[in-house]
Prior knowledge:
Elements: H1 2-24, E1 29-34, E2 38-46, E3 59-64, H2 72-85, E4 90-95, H3 102-105, H4 115-119, H5 126-129, E5 131-132, E6 138-141, H6 155-166, E7 172-177, H7 183-190, E8 194-199, H8 203-223, H9 228-238, H10 246-256, H11 258-269, E9 273-280, H12 285-300, E10 306-311, H13 314-321, H14 326-329, H15 334-346, H16 368-374, E11 378-388, E12 391-400, E13 404-409, E14 418-425, E15 428-437, E16 445-450, H17 456-468
Parallel strand pairs: 3-7, 3-8, 4-6, 4-7, 8-9, 9-10
Antiparallel strand pairs: 1-2, 5-6, 11-12, 11-14, 12-13, 13-16, 14-15, 15-16
Amino acid sequence: MCRDVQNVRSRTRRASHSRRGALQQGRIFAVKIDPKRGDTQGRLYPRFLMVSKHTSGPRVISVGGGKGGVGKSIVAANLSVAFAQAGRQVILIDADLGAANQHTLFGVDRPQSGLGDFLDRRVESLDQAAGPTQVANLRLVVGTGAIPNAANIQHAQKQKLMRHIRSAQAEVVVVDVGAGSSHNTVDFFDLGDARVLVVTPQLTSIQNAYGFLKAAVLRLFRNECADREEIQVLEAALSHKETERVEEILKRLQQSLPGFEGKLRDALARFDVRLVGNQVAESQDMGIFRGVGRMVRDFLGVPLPMAGFLATTREMHESVNRRTPFVLLSPHDENARAIAAMAQALMQPLPAAAPWQPPSRPVDSEDVTQWLRKHPRITVDWAAAIESAGRITTVRVIDVSAGGVGILSRQKLHDGDRYNLIFNQPHLKLAVPTVVRNAEHDSARVGLAFVANDDTPLRVLKAARAEIGPSQS
């Protein structure tokens, strides 16, 4: 009897130390206790893979695409350079397990250490695994190469890697995610504060990107589960046809477990993902990318604003052979300027998407309904920015008219404030002066009226009409 009591006490102390150590390392657990066996036999269920998104850690940018060959590694490499050139301390992690090539893109022949050393515990931290590059402020964690089972890392290894990404000694961590839709790949993509989905105009790329993003959304739901009941309810809700819209899944969850459904909607609203169109050769490719955004919003319930696009150029192709990112070889190239704009926008979170609501107060003593009737609005979903006195804030443009735009902004704006509204859409790269009108203090929605004296407002309106097609405008 005494020996049994001692064993129980020993197990209890070990379990207590284990949980205390986990909390000290910043991990978050949901604890499930079995009353029949006691606390020492309780199971620890991971909440978002035991990774807490600390506000004091680096900003994590994950870059994926679902399909190999779409150029996600090139996008990740050049974004990393752009962040570093802006004066930020950056770590680029090649998480394309088993098919890493970032070292090739940066001309690194014999790295002293890398991700394999970290996973095999030959180094203790990602900072020790990160090596220098030809770019100041940018370090690279070289990925694992053609080694058997390199892509099949253990669950504990993945958790450790994700925790270290969150606590890396850098201002920005860029994660180059591998191809496919495995749990490992999707978890690294979901880890990002902002996620970049790289898509080309080819049908196979579009199909794989949609499947990849759907897997990311469903994995996000799974990682929000706090206990076995929520897991079981979610699995039951998912056991329907594959082409079902996410909204239908959420409606079933609302009937089964209403509070859980609300939690998933909140997680979906915070899911910051942006599309980068790559290998663009013709103007009609823009319509393909806009169609992808509409499809994702309709079926997955996720806004997919376009962060920018990269044209197919000889400079980009040669940069791979010359083993140097193209923003270094051609810094004034159109693609280099697009990458710089994307990097700047990615440093700030997009305002959460919300359905547009009519203004609650008159504009300059004019009835709102008359003002809206005078300026018919076209619904869009554009990532943009506002600038005043050198301060730039990312916003989401949700509608456009000849008189102005409606935006969602995390920054508090006030009627009469003046801002330059900066667009970086494929056919709309300009800044237009605006004045705040009809700021709603109980919501994020703000109206910006154009104050330009040229044809700039008409160019903005034309770009919006091009998205919906002549039949709908």
